[in-house]
Amino acid sequence: MEGQKVLLLGVYGMEVVECGGALAKNVKSGGESFASIMLSSEKSQPQVNKAAEVLGVKMHYTNFKSGYVDVSVEAKEKIVRVVREVKPDIIITQDPEHSFHDLDPDRRQAMITILEGIALAGRDFALDKMPELEPHSIPTIYYMTPHSPNTVVDVSDVWNLKQEAMGVLESQMEFSGRHFEHALTDENLEHLVPGFSSLTSDYEKGRAVHKALDQAVHVYHGLATHGHYAFAEAFKREGNFHLQELIK
């Protein structure tokens, strides 16, 4: 399949890896994969950049302030500018339904800002602020890690790249290590990761649990639900699939 120009509009940064299989496969097919992240700390950005490099993704940051994301004109202009500069064929972003249930800060406001920005990018909005950029409409949007997917992408051939890229996110792995240790009992952790009690650093703990979790999720979408792939990423396409004829 011929590569496309794909743009991920993410919030925190780990999304680059979470849908990194689809992004990496697009690059392997001759396409270009971009990611623009709203909230990523100065400490995290070099790690996200390194993960993106592993996957072949070109990075950009809009540098919103944590806790202060709002649906203002200025915020929407940032998203519009990214879309018009990249001119993607496909946009990937977070699942609106999931964002409202997720208690990560800023996700709800970010979701509305992203969708408003996508909608306005193809209209006569803020042309005076960016006269060098023409409106650009997006024909296809996919929501990543959705509650109700209608699409799965085989990422078996880039699975090792996803694992390598996730391992680079040291701050996230350290945070996850502390989180999982408080969220689960010692017994559950041992069942999930045999030998967990022998791990000494937060990074090792977070990375070990993420490996188990990632494999379970990707196998579930790839094989367990009467699928045909070893590992798959789940997406929800916005709107109907428009086909010239049925495909198998």
Automatic annotation (TrEMBL):
Highest taxon above the source species: Bacteria
Entry GO MF terms: hydrolase activity
Keyword Hydrolase included in the entry's annotation: yes
InterPro entries from the UniProt entry: LmbE-like_dom_sf
Record keywords, A-Z: Hydrolase
Keyword Hydrolase applies: yes
Top EC group: hydrolase
EC number: 3.5.1.-
Protein name per UniProt: PIG-L deacetylase family protein
SUPFAM superfamilies documented for this protein: LmbE-like
